[in-house]
Amino acid sequence: MDKWAFGLTMTIVGVGGTFLTLWVLSLVIDLLKKLFPLKDEKAE
To answer: How far apart are CA 41 and CA 16, in angstroms?
Structure first.
C-alpha cells in the first residue's frame, strides 16, 4: 500500500468515524429529550 492509498483510507475512516460519532450523539440527545422533557413554566 503506497502513501496515497494509506492516506485516502485513513481519510475515509476518519470521516466515517466522525459521522458515526455525531449520529450516536444525536441518538443520545433524542433519548435524553424523551426521558427529560422540557416543562412549561408559566408561574408568574
So the answer is: 41
